[in-house]
Each structure stands twice: as structure tokens, then as C-alpha cells.
Amino acid sequence: MEEPIIYAKLNQTGPISTPLTAIRDPSGRREAGTRARREEPSETVGITSLGSCPWKHKWLIIGLSVTSLLLLISSVSLGIMMYNTEGLRLGLDLCSSERRSLNLSLSQSQNSERNLTHRLQHSTQLLNCMEQAIRDAEQTDKCPPGWTLFSGKCYFFSDERKTQVESDSFCYRNKARLATVKPSDTSLLRSIQSRKSEYWIGLTVSYYPSSGWYWPDGTIEGRLWASPKPGSCATLGATLGVTACDVQLPWVCEKANDKLDLIDRMNKCNKEIPQ
């Protein structure tokens, strides 16, 4: 009787290193079982190797993701740094512009300060000059010695005798002029008439705008009827009269009192103190 033939089939994914043969005897069965057991580790090893591949891919993906994240963070950080750098540059430009503006404002302020200081010094000097002029006017008499006050003006009645031209020069040297005596100057007129003498006065001949006798202020005198003639000058005693200009007579000078002269002194301060 023939021995039954036993076949064994192994499902392997890997290569079969040793082909299986038919075993005809019980000892052969043992041998086949032994070979099958020997072959099992190879099958296990193949399955284990194949199963580890997905984990390698996962770690690779994780590594790439981390690297990408780091690159993204670096890019963002670099962008922030560039933005901050640009902002700092703009801020620096703005500060430089403000600094230039402040320097310009400072220069203008210094110029204004110098101008104000100069004006203050000028005003102080002008004030001191005017105060001195006021003190001088208050400390002096209303009229200089030898002069008489009439209606706010000072008059000098000479005791000497000079020609009309010499008399006029004397008045000019004393900052005065030959007197103007109008009918309204009643006090002065009475004082002259009481002296029983004729005086040279400021009435002179003029041919413009028309021929006549004129006072220094340009007004014409209608009380004197004598026709103007070359070499003729007016006198005043008891009445108005006409005499040759080269005759020697006393004279009357007229000038403003010291109080009125204060304005001239102040004007002099304005001229003497530079702006």
C-alpha cells in the first residue's frame, strides 16, 4: 500500500528560499515541519521590515513640516526686522527734519532777541535823555536871566543900539528872533510903549505874494501904511514906524520859554540817539 503524499503551501510575500518537497514517511513529516518552522522567522522578518516604512515617512513629513515652520518664522521675523528698520529710518529722517526746524526756530528766536535787546537799549537811552531834559527844564527859570515873560514867551529888551541887521544877528545867536508884536499882544505892546523909545522888531518888507510888510510867521501887517522901500525897516515905539535899516536903535528879541523849549530838547534826543 502506497504512503499518502502530503503537500504544504505557505503564503509568503517574500521570496521562498528553499522549495518544499513531498515527504513520504513520518520522518519526512517531521523534517517538513522542522523546515516550516525554520522558515517562519524569515516571514516574520519580512513583515516587520515592511511595517516600519510608514513610520519613516511620518518622521520625514514631521521634519519637513518643522523645517518649513522654522523657515516661515524666520521669514516673518526678517520681515518684521525690515519693517522696524524702515520705521526707524523714517523716524530718524523725521527727527532730523524736526532738528533742522528747531535750529531754524532757535536762530530766528536769537535774532528776535537781539533786535528786542537793541530796541530796549535804544528806548532806555531815549527815556533817560528825555528825563534829563525834563529835569533841566524844571530846574531852570521860565525865562533866562534878563528876559521877561509875556503870554508864555520870553522877550529881551536891549539897552544897546545896533543896526537892524546887527540886532537880528544878536537874537539869532541867542536862539531867538526879532519880536512879533501884534495888536492882540496887549501886555507886550503896553510895555514897549511905556519905554519911550523905538525898537527894531521883526516886521520886514516882502514883495511876495504881494508888496507889503510881513511878520516872520508870514502874516501881513495892515497897520503900517508906509510904502515898502528898499533899505527901509519897521520900528515900534508909541506907534509903528519906518526907519532906514542902518540906523542904530535898541531891539526886542523873542523866543519860547524853557517849558516850550522842552519839545525841542526831546526832538534833539531822538536825533542824537541812534536807532
From TrEMBL:
Q: Does the keyword Transmembrane apply?
A: yes
Q: Name one Pfam family in it.
A: Lectin_C
- Please name the PROSITE patterns in this protein's record: C_TYPE_LECTIN_2
Q: Which residues cross the membrane?
A: 59-83
- Enumerate composition-biased segments (Basic and acidic residues): 26-41
Recorded GO cellular component terms are: plasma membrane
Record has Transmembrane as a keyword:
yes
Keyword annotations for this protein, in alphabetical order, are:
Membrane, Transmembrane, Transmembrane helix
Q: Which InterPro entries match?
A: C-type_lectin-like, C-type_lectin-like/link_sf, CD72, CTDL_fold
Tell me, what is one Gene Ontology molecular-function annotation carried by this entry? transmembrane signaling receptor activity
Matching SMART domains: CLECT
Q: Where is this region: Disordered?
A: 21-43
Residue stretches making up the C-type lectin domain: 150-254
- Top-level taxon: Eukaryota
The UniProt entry, under PANTHER family, shows: B-CELL DIFFERENTIATION ANTIGEN CD72, CD72-RELATED
Q: What is this protein called?
A: CD209 antigen-like protein A
Tell me which species this is from. Xenopus tropicalis
Quick one: which gene encodes this?
LOC101734024
